[in-house]
Amino acid sequence: MIKDVLDLDRHPIDRLDTPEGKRLIDRCKADMAANSMFNLEGFVKPDAVATAASELDPLIDSASYRHARRHNIYFKKDIPGLAAEHPALRQFETVNYTLCADQLAGTVVANIYEWQPLPAFVARVLDKPRLFLMDDPLAKVNVMAYGPGEALNWHFDRSQFTTTLLIRAAESGGEFEYRSGLRSDTDPNYDGVARMLNGEDPNVSRMSLAAGTLNVFAGKNTAHRVTPVSGARSRVVAVFSYYDNPGVTFSSAERIGFYGRAA
Protein backbone atom coordinates (compact mmCIF):
# COMPACT_ATOMS: atom_id res chain seq x y z
CA MET A 1 0.00 0.00 0.00
CA ILE A 2 1.19 3.52 -0.80
CA LYS A 3 0.76 4.55 2.85
CA ASP A 4 3.48 2.05 3.74
CA VAL A 5 5.80 3.81 1.29
CA LEU A 6 5.02 7.53 1.61
CA ASP A 7 4.67 9.60 4.78
CA LEU A 8 1.23 10.98 3.99
CA ASP A 9 0.68 12.11 7.57
CA ARG A 10 3.55 14.56 7.22
CA HIS A 11 2.89 15.34 3.54
CA PRO A 12 -0.87 14.94 2.86
CA ILE A 13 -0.72 15.11 -0.92
CA ASP A 14 -3.64 12.68 -1.12
CA ARG A 15 -5.85 15.18 0.74
CA LEU A 16 -5.18 18.48 -1.00
CA ASP A 17 -8.59 20.01 -0.26
CA THR A 18 -8.28 19.55 3.50
CA PRO A 19 -6.81 22.33 5.69
CA GLU A 20 -3.59 20.31 6.01
CA GLY A 21 -3.37 19.82 2.27
CA LYS A 22 -3.96 23.49 1.56
CA ARG A 23 -1.22 24.48 4.02
CA LEU A 24 1.17 22.12 2.24
CA ILE A 25 0.33 23.65 -1.13
CA ASP A 26 0.76 27.18 0.21
CA ARG A 27 4.13 26.34 1.73
CA CYS A 28 5.40 24.70 -1.45
CA LYS A 29 4.22 27.63 -3.57
CA ALA A 30 6.04 30.05 -1.28
CA ASP A 31 9.23 27.98 -1.43
CA MET A 32 9.01 27.79 -5.22
CA ALA A 33 8.59 31.56 -5.50
CA ALA A 34 11.52 32.23 -3.17
CA ASN A 35 13.97 29.50 -4.21
CA SER A 36 12.82 28.13 -7.59
CA MET A 37 12.17 24.80 -5.81
CA PHE A 38 10.45 23.05 -2.96
CA ASN A 39 11.45 19.94 -1.00
CA LEU A 40 9.40 17.34 0.85
CA GLU A 41 11.93 15.88 3.26
CA GLY A 42 11.01 12.39 4.45
CA PHE A 43 8.46 11.99 1.66
CA VAL A 44 9.42 8.32 1.35
CA LYS A 45 9.61 6.40 4.62
CA PRO A 46 13.03 5.07 5.66
CA ASP A 47 12.14 1.38 5.23
CA ALA A 48 10.78 2.08 1.75
CA VAL A 49 13.91 4.03 0.82
CA ALA A 50 16.00 1.06 1.93
CA THR A 51 13.84 -1.29 -0.15
CA ALA A 52 14.14 0.99 -3.17
CA ALA A 53 17.93 1.05 -2.87
CA SER A 54 18.09 -2.74 -2.54
CA GLU A 55 16.02 -3.09 -5.71
CA LEU A 56 18.12 -0.63 -7.68
CA ASP A 57 21.68 -1.52 -6.70
CA PRO A 58 21.81 -4.88 -8.55
CA LEU A 59 20.28 -3.27 -11.64
CA ILE A 60 22.77 -0.41 -11.54
CA ASP A 61 25.65 -2.88 -11.25
CA SER A 62 24.47 -5.18 -14.04
CA ALA A 63 22.25 -3.30 -16.46
CA SER A 64 22.80 0.45 -16.31
CA TYR A 65 24.05 2.58 -19.19
CA ARG A 66 27.17 4.67 -18.62
CA HIS A 67 26.29 8.12 -19.89
CA ALA A 68 29.34 10.36 -20.34
CA ARG A 69 29.47 13.56 -22.32
CA ARG A 70 31.32 16.84 -22.54
CA HIS A 71 28.99 19.80 -22.81
CA ASN A 72 28.51 23.47 -22.10
CA ILE A 73 25.84 24.83 -19.79
CA TYR A 74 23.36 25.01 -22.69
CA PHE A 75 23.89 21.47 -24.02
CA LYS A 76 24.31 23.06 -27.46
CA LYS A 77 27.28 23.11 -29.83
CA ASP A 78 26.93 26.83 -30.41
CA ILE A 79 24.71 29.76 -29.48
CA PRO A 80 23.70 32.25 -32.23
CA GLY A 81 25.41 35.57 -31.64
CA LEU A 82 27.85 34.18 -29.06
CA ALA A 83 31.50 33.70 -29.99
CA ALA A 84 32.74 30.12 -29.68
CA GLU A 85 35.49 31.24 -27.28
CA HIS A 86 33.11 33.09 -24.94
CA PRO A 87 33.64 31.82 -21.36
CA ALA A 88 29.90 31.09 -21.04
CA LEU A 89 30.53 28.21 -23.46
CA ARG A 90 33.30 26.53 -21.47
CA GLN A 91 33.10 22.74 -21.47
CA PHE A 92 32.42 20.38 -18.58
CA GLU A 93 31.99 16.63 -18.23
CA THR A 94 28.93 14.81 -16.92
CA VAL A 95 29.14 11.11 -16.01
CA ASN A 96 26.48 8.88 -14.51
CA TYR A 97 24.95 5.41 -14.79
CA THR A 98 21.32 5.35 -15.94
CA LEU A 99 18.42 2.92 -15.58
CA CYS A 100 15.42 3.38 -17.88
CA ALA A 101 11.72 2.96 -17.23
CA ASP A 102 11.55 -0.46 -18.88
CA GLN A 103 14.11 -1.71 -16.33
CA LEU A 104 12.19 -0.35 -13.34
CA ALA A 105 8.76 -1.99 -13.68
CA GLY A 106 7.33 -3.03 -10.31
CA THR A 107 9.96 -1.21 -8.25
CA VAL A 108 9.20 1.21 -5.44
CA VAL A 109 10.43 4.06 -7.63
CA ALA A 110 8.14 3.17 -10.55
CA ASN A 111 5.14 2.74 -8.26
CA ILE A 112 5.65 6.19 -6.75
CA TYR A 113 6.00 7.77 -10.20
CA GLU A 114 2.75 6.20 -11.42
CA TRP A 115 0.71 7.10 -8.31
CA GLN A 116 -1.69 9.68 -9.74
CA PRO A 117 -2.00 11.94 -6.65
CA LEU A 118 1.68 12.87 -7.05
CA PRO A 119 1.40 14.66 -10.43
CA ALA A 120 -1.93 16.09 -9.28
CA PHE A 121 -0.15 17.64 -6.29
CA VAL A 122 2.71 19.02 -8.37
CA ALA A 123 0.17 20.51 -10.79
CA ARG A 124 -1.62 22.30 -7.95
CA VAL A 125 1.61 23.81 -6.64
CA LEU A 126 2.63 24.97 -10.12
CA ASP A 127 -0.87 26.30 -10.96
CA LYS A 128 -1.32 23.90 -13.85
CA PRO A 129 -4.69 22.40 -14.77
CA ARG A 130 -3.20 18.91 -14.99
CA LEU A 131 0.04 17.00 -15.42
CA PHE A 132 0.37 13.73 -17.31
CA LEU A 133 2.77 10.81 -17.06
CA MET A 134 5.22 10.73 -19.94
CA ASP A 135 4.49 8.06 -22.57
CA ASP A 136 8.11 7.33 -23.42
CA PRO A 137 8.95 3.68 -22.57
CA LEU A 138 12.53 4.59 -21.62
CA ALA A 139 12.42 8.20 -20.41
CA LYS A 140 9.31 8.53 -18.26
CA VAL A 141 11.12 7.51 -15.09
CA ASN A 142 14.89 7.14 -14.82
CA VAL A 143 17.35 6.36 -12.07
CA MET A 144 20.81 7.95 -12.13
CA ALA A 145 23.75 6.75 -10.05
CA TYR A 146 26.93 8.79 -9.52
CA GLY A 147 30.06 7.08 -8.23
CA PRO A 148 33.34 8.58 -6.99
CA GLY A 149 34.47 11.50 -9.15
CA GLU A 150 31.24 11.52 -11.17
CA ALA A 151 28.92 14.50 -11.40
CA LEU A 152 26.04 16.16 -13.19
CA ASN A 153 27.70 19.34 -14.36
CA TRP A 154 26.40 22.88 -14.87
CA HIS A 155 23.34 23.17 -17.11
CA PHE A 156 19.95 24.74 -17.66
CA ASP A 157 17.00 22.36 -18.03
CA ARG A 158 15.00 22.09 -21.23
CA SER A 159 11.79 21.51 -19.28
CA GLN A 160 10.02 24.03 -17.12
CA PHE A 161 10.45 21.93 -13.98
CA THR A 162 12.07 18.69 -12.83
CA THR A 163 10.84 16.25 -10.18
CA THR A 164 13.42 14.08 -8.43
CA LEU A 165 13.50 11.65 -5.51
CA LEU A 166 16.79 11.07 -3.71
CA ILE A 167 17.28 7.38 -2.93
CA ARG A 168 20.78 7.60 -1.48
CA ALA A 169 23.09 10.47 -0.68
CA ALA A 170 26.83 10.24 -1.26
CA GLU A 171 29.22 9.97 1.68
CA SER A 172 30.52 13.39 0.65
CA GLY A 173 30.12 15.61 -2.36
CA GLY A 174 27.07 15.08 -4.52
CA GLU A 175 25.61 18.36 -3.33
CA PHE A 176 23.07 20.38 -5.28
CA GLU A 177 24.36 23.80 -6.35
CA TYR A 178 22.19 26.37 -8.08
CA ARG A 179 21.98 30.02 -9.04
CA SER A 180 18.47 31.46 -9.19
CA GLY A 181 17.67 34.51 -11.31
CA LEU A 182 20.77 34.17 -13.46
CA ARG A 183 18.92 34.65 -16.74
CA SER A 184 15.38 35.16 -18.03
CA ASP A 185 13.41 34.33 -21.16
CA THR A 186 14.31 37.77 -22.50
CA ASP A 187 17.84 38.27 -21.09
CA PRO A 188 20.39 35.43 -21.51
CA ASN A 189 22.96 37.30 -19.38
CA TYR A 190 25.93 35.53 -20.97
CA ASP A 191 28.48 37.56 -19.03
CA GLY A 192 26.74 36.69 -15.76
CA VAL A 193 26.76 33.03 -16.74
CA ALA A 194 30.49 33.28 -17.46
CA ARG A 195 31.19 34.86 -14.07
CA MET A 196 29.30 32.08 -12.31
CA LEU A 197 31.15 29.36 -14.22
CA ASN A 198 34.43 31.03 -13.25
CA GLY A 199 33.48 30.84 -9.57
CA GLU A 200 33.00 34.61 -9.29
CA ASP A 201 29.30 34.68 -8.34
CA PRO A 202 28.61 35.05 -4.60
CA ASN A 203 24.92 34.19 -5.07
CA VAL A 204 25.41 30.50 -5.89
CA SER A 205 23.62 28.38 -3.28
CA ARG A 206 24.46 24.85 -2.14
CA MET A 207 22.11 22.33 -0.61
CA SER A 208 22.45 18.78 0.73
CA LEU A 209 19.35 16.58 0.58
CA ALA A 210 18.54 13.54 2.69
CA ALA A 211 17.47 10.21 1.23
CA GLY A 212 13.70 10.07 0.79
CA THR A 213 13.39 13.76 -0.15
CA LEU A 214 11.19 14.75 -3.08
CA ASN A 215 12.47 17.84 -4.90
CA VAL A 216 10.61 19.87 -7.51
CA PHE A 217 12.88 22.39 -9.20
CA ALA A 218 12.33 25.06 -11.86
CA GLY A 219 15.60 24.78 -13.75
CA LYS A 220 14.89 26.32 -17.13
CA ASN A 221 16.45 29.65 -16.14
CA THR A 222 18.24 28.55 -12.96
CA ALA A 223 21.74 27.20 -13.53
CA HIS A 224 22.45 24.11 -11.47
CA ARG A 225 24.68 21.10 -11.02
CA VAL A 226 25.43 18.18 -8.70
CA THR A 227 28.99 18.40 -7.40
CA PRO A 228 31.40 15.45 -7.85
CA VAL A 229 30.79 12.51 -5.55
CA SER A 230 33.50 11.25 -3.23
CA GLY A 231 33.64 8.27 -0.90
CA ALA A 232 32.58 4.67 -1.48
CA ARG A 233 28.83 5.25 -1.49
CA SER A 234 27.21 6.28 -4.78
CA ARG A 235 24.55 8.96 -5.06
CA VAL A 236 21.31 7.51 -6.45
CA VAL A 237 18.38 9.65 -7.60
CA ALA A 238 15.14 8.95 -9.46
CA VAL A 239 13.87 11.42 -12.05
CA PHE A 240 10.11 11.62 -12.70
CA SER A 241 8.92 13.17 -15.99
CA TYR A 242 5.50 14.84 -15.99
CA TYR A 243 4.14 17.01 -18.80
CA ASP A 244 1.32 19.47 -19.47
CA ASN A 245 0.09 17.35 -22.38
CA PRO A 246 -0.44 13.59 -22.83
CA GLY A 247 1.52 11.48 -25.26
CA VAL A 248 4.97 13.07 -24.86
CA THR A 249 7.90 10.92 -26.02
CA PHE A 250 11.54 11.42 -26.92
CA SER A 251 12.76 10.95 -30.46
CA SER A 252 14.86 7.90 -31.31
CA ALA A 253 17.92 10.15 -31.57
CA GLU A 254 17.30 11.57 -28.10
CA ARG A 255 16.91 8.08 -26.63
CA ILE A 256 20.15 6.94 -28.20
CA GLY A 257 21.92 10.06 -26.92
CA PHE A 258 20.71 9.60 -23.35
CA TYR A 259 20.45 5.80 -23.07
CA GLY A 260 22.51 4.27 -25.85
CA ARG A 261 19.44 2.62 -27.41
CA ALA A 262 16.24 3.67 -29.12
CA ALA A 263 13.91 1.00 -27.73
Describe the structure.
The longest helix is centred in the N-terminal third of the chain and has 18 residues, at 46-63. This protein is α+β, with helices and mostly antiparallel strands and 263 residues long. It has a single domain, classed as Jelly Rolls, CATH 2.60.120.620. A seven-stranded antiparallel beta sheet has the order 1-11-7-14-5-3-2. It has six helices and 15 strands.
Write the layout of secondary structure elements.
Blueprint: H1 19-35, E1 37-40, H2 46-63, E2 65-71, E3 92-99, H3 108-114, H4 117-125, E4 132-133, E5 141-146, E6 152-155, E7 162-168, E8 172-173, E9 176-179, H5 190-197, E10 205-207, E11 214-217, E12 223-226, E13 229-230, E14 235-240, E15 242-243, H6 252-259
Antiparallel strand pairs: 1-11, 2-3, 3-5, 4-15, 5-14, 6-12, 7-11, 7-14, 8-13, 9-10, 9-12
From the structure above, extract its key features.
about 260 residues, alpha+beta, Jelly Rolls, 7-stranded antiparallel sheet, 4-stranded antiparallel sheet, about 25% strand
Give a quick summary of the entry.
With 263 residues, this protein is of the alpha+beta class. The protein is built from six helices and 15 strands.
How is the CATH topology named?
Jelly Rolls
Number of helices: 6
Portion of residues in helices?
Answer: 25-40%
| Share of β-strand residues | 15-25%
Q: Please list the strands of the largest sheet in the order they lie side by side.
A: 1-11-7-14-5-3-2
Mean pLDDT: 96
Architecture per CATH nomenclature, i.e. the level-2 architecture: Sandwich
Sequence of secondary-structure elements: HEHEEHHEEEEEEHEEEEEEH
Please give the alpha-carbon distance between the first and last residues: 31 Å
Are there runs of 5+ residues with pLDDT below 50, and where? none
| CATH top level class name | Mainly Beta
Largest sheet: 7 strands, antiparallel
Radius of gyration: 18 Å
Number of strands: 15
Number of domains: 1
Shape: globular
CATH superfamily: q2cbj1_9rhob like domain
Strand-pairing-aware structural class? alpha+beta
